[in-house]
Design a protein that fits this description.
The chain starts with a helix and ends with a strand. The longest helix has 23 residues, at 267-289. The protein folds into two domains: 2-21 and 388-501, Golgi alpha-mannosidase II (Immunoglobulin-like, Sandwich), CATH 2.60.40.1180; 28-383, Alpha-Beta Barrel (TIM Barrel). It has an eight-stranded parallel barrel with strand order 3-4-7-8-9-10-11-12, surrounded by six helices. A seven-stranded antiparallel beta sheet has the order 2-15-19-20-25-22-23, with helices on one face. A four-stranded mixed beta sheet has the order 16-1-21-24, with helices on one face. 27% of the residues lie in helices and 28% in strands. A hairpin with a 2-residue loop joins strand 17 (396-399) and strand 18 (402-406). It is an alpha/beta fold and 502 residues long. Alpha-L-arabinofuranose binds at residues 37, 80-82, 182-183, 301, 351-352.
Length: 502
């Protein structure tokens, strides 16, 4: 009788099974990238604040640098965003006193050009990020784009390489990643382009940029407007310019405008659908056109953004979104999807890094960490190099147009060097703790499992200057048997289980 009851309980229990040999892709740490735009208080008053007592010798806020270092962002996209489609890079180099202020049309402000390419590169070096520059393919031309590459990477005795030297940078910056245009598929963009116009412009820009520096990696602005002809646009781009594309860049933002938690928790499906669709488009075109070179996906803008939106500065409030716990769960679900799709998703850049839809908020005297900072930090610091194809089953829920979705959202990664396993679990139940058996189908655990839990008092909990730790990370250790243990995932939580392997 007792045995039957026990077996029954075990059968109905939520389950995660991991086979260390079921590898689904190599994880590129660039999944944990960032994005900084000249917009609101991201650069000025966020990263760069030369008058502040918190600034270092380069005018960079040291508290912001310290917080960003915690996130271990290996790559940083810059300078936009919509901003770049009206930007002249030459305005932002050379002696600061001679730099012009210009009307900034994308966000309706004035750009003082106190921070530009060289300041950005210095900033990246201080946080160990690889700079990723987007060139202006809005109102800018290919000459300007190729000149920017020469200014940054030129090593010979040429005018623009010499201009960089004159500006105090003898060694080339060796910028590896270059994007051509931002959200060119959106009517809101300065210099919006039809699919034909962009495919043609992309190839011509790419050609001359590569001729200046053949080592650069190029990103094409493929999809941000998911309501238009994105299939045709992507196919045309791959058809005409595949030789010049290293990454297809896609963007999206999600949110909870109807205050419907269950519907919001199905954001995982939108991410899954979009990644699978773009993977399929790349695969189909590679087969059709006999393309053998790797073409990866870069989700080079993604985040939660729905509160601080609107056409005017008053409406969009400089995009200063205050995040709550449910947003942190959604950010974690994004990382789970990126890990599950690691075979083709090789870069992702959370938009953005400071103040503007960001994990870090500053004021003149300090900063606080938003809820979404915490999953980012735990994932980035624990994620290994191999994605594993985890099996899981759990109780289900319905939300939005979905039903039968598993309450647990799971991903797993192996760190081959450290011989450790990380299991990433979001419990999307608002009220129920979910008791779950976690089993290794091959291999054994060695020693206790480190448990990192991101959680707070309720799904609406936010952090602020007055209450910086309402949502935070709690760490414990768990003793486990050789290849199996039971863990109860707290309601509305993100849990990362890290374990050494025998
Ligand atoms: O990140 C904010 C804005 O969102 C970017 O400028 C633009 O590319 C996107 O629409």
């Amino acid at each position: 009788m007792y045995l039957r009851r026990l077996l029954g309980r075990l059968r109905s229990m939520n389950t995660i099974k991991i086979d260390l040999d079921r590898r689904s892709g190599l994880i590129d740490h660039n999944l944990f990238g960032g994005f900084a735009e000249h917009l609101g208080r991201c650069i000025y008053g966020g990263i760069y604040d030369p008058g502040s007592p918190l600034a270092d010798e380069d005018g960079l806020r040291t508290d912001v640098l310290d917080a960003l270092r915690r996130l271990k962002m290996p790559v940083m996209r810059y300078p936009g965003g919509n901003f770049v489609s009206g930007y002249r890079w030459i305005d932002g180099v050379g002696p600061v006193e001679t730099r012009p202020a210009r009307p900034e049309l994308a966000w309706g402000t004035i750009e003082p050009n106190l921070f530009g390419t060289n300041e950005f590169v210095k900033f990246c070096r201080k946080i160990n990020s690889e700079p990723y520059i987007v060139v202006n393919c809005g109102d800018g031309d290919m000459r300007e784009a190729r000149d920017w590459v020469e200014y940054c990477n030129g090593a010979q005795n040429t005018a623009l390489a010499n201009l960089r030297r004159q500006h105090g940078f003898d060694a080339p910056h060796n910028i590896k990643y270059w994007g051509i245009g931002n959200e060119v598929d959106g009517e809101w963009q300065i210099g919006y382009k039809t699919p034909q116009e962009y495919a043609r412009a992309y190839k011509e820009f790419a050609k001359v940029m590569r001729w200046v520096d053949p080592s650069i990696k190029l990103l094409a602005s493929a999809i941000s407007n998911w309501r238009t002809e994105f299939v045709e646009r992507t196919n045309l781009l791959l058809d005409q310019a595949a030789d010049y594309i290293d990454y297809l860049a896609i963007h999206w933002y999600v949110g909870n405008p109807d205050n419907d938690f269950a519907a919001y928790m199905t954001a995982s499906e939108l991410v899954e659908e979009r990644l699978s669709v773009v993977e399929g488009l790349i695969r189909a075109m590679k087969l059709q056109r006999n393309i053998h070179k790797p073409i990866a996906i870069a989700v080079d803008e993604w985040n939660v953004w729905y509160r601080a939106r609107g056409a005017t500065v008053e409406e969009h409030k400089n995009l200063e979104e205050t995040y709550n716990l449910e947003d942190a769960l959604v950010v974690a679900m994004h990382f789970n999807a990126f890990i599950r799709h690691a075979q083709m998703v090789k870069m992702a850049n959370i938009a953005q890094i400071v103040n503007v839809i960001a994990p870090i908020i500053t004021n003149p005297t300090g900063l606080f960490l938003q809820t979404i900072f915490h999953p980012f930090e735990v994932y980035s610091r624990t994620c290994g190099n191999i994605a594993l194809d985890a099996f899981w089953e759990s109780e289900t829920f319905s939300g939005g147009s979905y039903s039968g979705l598993r309450l647990l959202d799971v991903a797993a990664a192996l760190d081959e060097e450290k011989k450790s396993l990380s299991v990433y679990v979001v419990n999307r139940s608002e009220h129920d703790a979910l008791e779950t058996r976690i089993t290794l189908d091959s291999g054994q655990f060695a020693g206790p499992v480190q448990v990192h839990v991101v959680n707070g008092p309720d799904i609406q909990a936010e952090n602020s200057f007055d209450h910086p730790d309402r949502v935070s990370v709690f760490k414990t250790d768990l003793r486990v048997e050789r290849n199996s243990f039971v863990y109860t995932f707290e309601p509305h939580s993100v849990t990362v289980l890290v374990s050494a392997l025998a």
